[in-house]
Amino acid sequence: MSENCALRRANVLANHILQSPPQPWNNSLAREACLQYTPPEVNESYGFQVKEMRKLLDGHNLEDRDWLYGIIIQSNLFNRKERGGGKVFVSPDYNETMEQQREISMKRIMYFLENGVFKGWLTETSPEAELKKFALYEVCGMYDYSLSAKLGVHFLLWGNAIKFFGTKRHHEKWLKDTEDYLVKGCFAMTELGHGSNVKGIETVTSYDPRTEEFVINTPCESAQKYWIGEAAIHANHAIVISQLEINETNQGIHVFIAQIRDQDGNICPNIHIADCGHKIGLNGVDTGRIWFDNLRIPRENLLNSVADVSPDGEYVSAIKNPDQRFGAFLAPLTSGRVTIASCAIYSAKVGLAVAIRYSLSRRAFSIVANGPEVLLLDYPSHQRRLLPLLAKTYAMSFAANDIKMMYVKRTPETNKEIHVVSMGLKALLTWHNMRTLQECREACGGQGLKTENRVGHLKGDYDVQTTFEGDNNVLMQQVSKALFAEYASCKKRNKPFKGLGLEHMNSPRPVLPTQLTSSTLRCSHFQSHQLSEDLSKAFAEKAILQAVLDAEAKLPAGSIKVNKVTVSHGQFLAQS
Ligand SMILES: Cc1cc2nc3c(=O)[nH]c(=O)nc-3n(C[C@H](O)[C@H](O)[C@H](O)COP(=O)(O)OP(=O)(O)OC[C@H]3O[C@@H](n4cnc5c(N)ncnc54)[C@H](O)[C@@H]3O)c2cc1C
Q1: What is the domain partition of the chain in residue ranges?
Q2: GO CC terms on record (predicted)?
C-alpha cells in the first residue's frame, strides 16, 4: 500500500518536472493559442506622438514628472518588479498591515527628501515652482494616494497654514525646517462634534498676560480633535484651529502652532493622543485624535496675519467683520482642493487604462458556433459603459489643468473666483473618479477584484476625497450660494453678469429646436445656455467645457478617435 502511494507521488513529481502538457479538452483549447498571449506592456509601441499627447494631457512639467518617476523606480522601497523587455513596474504592496503601510510611507518620504524632491516646496513661490509641486503630487498620487495625502497634510495644510496665516517671524522659523522635515506637521481642525461646521468647533484658547502664553483646552469629549492626518504617530507639531477667548469675549476661530511630540517622538505633557484606527483606505496615513489639557504655548505661536494679541492681552485685527475673518482663515484649503481635484482625475485615468486594456484583450462568447470569441470592447454595451467615462475624464483633465493655472496666477481680484471654482471642481472631479472606478471594477469582472489590478484599492484610497477638505455636498451648496449671491447682486444693481462663469446668461436663452441634431448638441453656444438649467452644475461644467475647447484648439486639424489607451511611465496615454 505504502509502496503504491510512494510510486504515485513520484509520478506526480516527475510530471511536474517534465512539464507534460495537459490533455486539451477539445481543439478550440489548443495549448499554442494560450501561449501566444503576451501582456501588452511588454512589447507595446505607439503609432502616435506620445510626447505630444502627454503635453496635452499632463499639460505641464513633463520632465519633472519623469524625473520623480525615475527616482521611484530606482528604489526597492517602491516594490519594484522587472518584467520582460527590461521594463520596471512599481506598485504598493497591498498585503502590508496598517502599521507597515504607515512606516513605509514615511520611509518613502525620507527617501524623496534625500533626493531633493521637496526643494522649494514652501520657500519658492513662483508659478513655475507651484506647478512643479502640483505635478509631483500627481505622480505620488498615481503611485499610492497615502503618499500624496501624507505630503498634503505636511505641506499643504501645516506648511501653507504657516505661510498664509503666519507673518515673517513664523516664515523664518518654520518654513525651511518644514521643507527639510526637521519638523513634521499636522493640521488639527476637525473635531468629533464638528466637521463641516468649522465655526462650531469647541476647542478653546485663552490668553494669560502674566506669562504671555496662550492656554489651549478641550472642554468636552465632542471637542476632541478627530481625523487628524499624521497625528497618531509621525507629527511632532500641529496647527490647532480653536476659538479664541480674550477677556471672556469669544473672537471666533484662530490658528495656533502647538508642539505635540518631542524630538524622540514622545507625546508632550498636557496632551493626549489616540489612533483613529484602520480605515477603508489610505492606511498609510496615521490618522489620530488629540485632546488638550491646559496646554501652554508662547504668545508668538498665534499665526497673526489676520489678527493678533498684544503682550498685555489686547485683541487687534484689521478685519473687523468676524465672518470675513473666518473666510480668511480657510484660505489655505484652496490649494489642497486643487490638488485633490487633479489627483482624482489621475486616479480615474489609471482605472480606465486598466479596464479598457482588459476589454481589448478579454474575449467572451462567440457570435457563431465554434467562431472566435468577441472582444469585450466590441460589445456596444461595454463601449457605452467605458467610453463616455473616458471622454468625461479627458474633459475633466483639461479642467483640472485650468484650475491649476488659475491658482498659480492668482491675484487678490481672482481669489474669490478661484475659491468657488476649486470647490465646484473638487466635488465634481472626485465624484466622477468614484463613479468611474466602480464601473472600471465591474468592467474587469472577477479580475477587477484582485488587488494587483489596483482598481479596487483606488476606490478605497480615493473615497475619502469626497469628504475631506470640504464634504462634496456641502461644497456644492456653497458654490450655489456664491452663484445666487452674484446673480442677485447683479440683478439688484441692474448690471450684466461678470465673473464666476455667469457671463453666458447676459444673452437671451436660445429656443430649443424640436429636432436635436448632433451638430446642435455639439455647438458651444447651445451647450453653454443649456447648462444654465442648474446654476451650480452649470458653473463647474462651463469651466470644463471651456477647458476642452481650449485644448481642442491646440490639437492638429481633425478629430480625436481613441482606439487604444495605456499607462506608460506612470502616465496615461491614448492612441488617436
Ligand atoms: C481619512 C480622513 C482624513 C482627514 N484628515 C483631516 C485632517 O488632517 N485635519 C482635519 O482637520 N480634518 C481631517 N479630516 C476631517 C474631514 O475634513 C471631515 O471629515 C469633513 O470636513 C466632514 O466632516 P464630518 O466628517 O464631521 O461630516 P459631517 O459634517 O458630519 O457631515 C456628514 C454628512 O452630513 C452632510 N451635511 C453636513 N452639513 C450639512 C448641511 N448643512 N446640509 C446638508 N447636508 C449636510 C454632509 O454632506 C455629509 O454627507 C479627515 C477625514 C478623514 C475621513
Answers
A1: 50-175, 185-321, 333-512+535-575
A2: peroxisome
